[in-house]
Design brief:
Elements (H helix, E strand, L loop, with lengths): L6 E6 L2 H13 L3 E2 L8 E6 L13 E5 L10 E3 L5 H12 L14 H4 L6 H11 L4 H8 L3 H15 L4 H10 L6
Parallel strand pairs: 1-2, 1-3, 3-4, 4-5
């Protein structure tokens, strides 16, 4: 990785798309890597008539309108994804996370652009999904009930939820937690 950004191997046949994606990456503080050995992640733009990504030695993000053609890629996004979505997918792929396409398609843009939860916020949300009260969550993690409440308020704000049940439902839909 560069100081703040990633080294991205950009694969795009269309010169216009390659140029636009190159600008997107530069604006996000990433550097283009000429060789696979110099890259942290691959960003591949795959048009409707192009063949799937074959080199899978690096974490990969694919922009395509045929998401089901890439079942084992780290991240698959529509070609019209917002820059923030591409940025989040790149960082998620490098971190070893997967951005999956659900059977019913992608979440609305507002939901995908929501801030990411911290590891502790995810733990608290999972515990709430398990049916634990704030006191039980506090005991499980060795923190105060006040701290649990603080984390839950942050989760509510980030997921745009107003109740524990709504936060859990949104966490489930986005694949943040499992029950």
């Amino acid at each position: 990785m560069t100081r703040d950004g990633l080294r991205v191997r950009l694969l795009a046949r269309d010169p216009g798309r390659r140029s636009a994606l190159g600008r997107l990456l530069a604006e996000a503080g990433h550097a283009l890597a000429a060789e696979p050995d110099d890259a942290d992640v691959v960003l591949a733009d795959i048009g409707p008539d192009e063949t799937p990504l074959t080199d899978r030695t690096l974490p990969s993000v694919v922009l395509t309108d045929r998401p089901r053609a890439f079942p084992d890629v780290d991240a698959v996004l529509p070609r019209a994804s917002a820059p923030a979505q591409v940025e989040a997918a790149l960082r998620a792929a490098v971190a070893g996370l997967h951005v999956r396409v659900h059977e019913d398609g992608f979440a609305p843009l507002e939901e995908l652009a929501a801030p990411l939860l911290t590891p502790r916020e995810l733990e608290v949300l999972r515990a709430v999904g398990d049916g634990l009260s704030n006191k039980e969550v506090a005991r499980r993690f060795g923190i105060s009930a006040h701290t649990v409440k603080f984390h839950l308020e942050a989760v509510f704000a980030k997921l745009n939820a107003s109740t524990r049940a709504e936060a859990v439902a949104k966490g489930l839909r986005r694949g943040l937690i499992e029950i």
